[in-house]
Design a protein that fits this description.
Number of helices: 3
Strand content: under 5%
Distance between the termini: 6 Å
Radius of gyration: 19 Å
Helix content: over 70%
Largest sheet: none
Order of helices and strands: HHH
Number of strands: 0
Low-confidence stretches: none
Amino acid sequence: MSEELVISLGRDALLTTLLVVGPLLGLSLVVGLVVSIFQATTQIQDQTLAFVPKILAVLIGLVVFGPWMLQVLTQFTLHLFAALPRYLR
């Protein structure tokens, strides 16, 4: 296994990871920003108010984006298994 192949495989794994978690992280970021603005305008400083909406948003995001995320991970895994003989050389 050459160095270029290992670097390429690592890069593909990282890009797939970023592609899969990106929508959930973005959704959590937007909800956190909205909650922070709400807390700043109403001067409510409850710590749990910041976490509960984010958790709910991520769970809803998993329901919405879950099939697509599973498809991306399945394609990556199938690509790995298909190229396995090339990796073992």
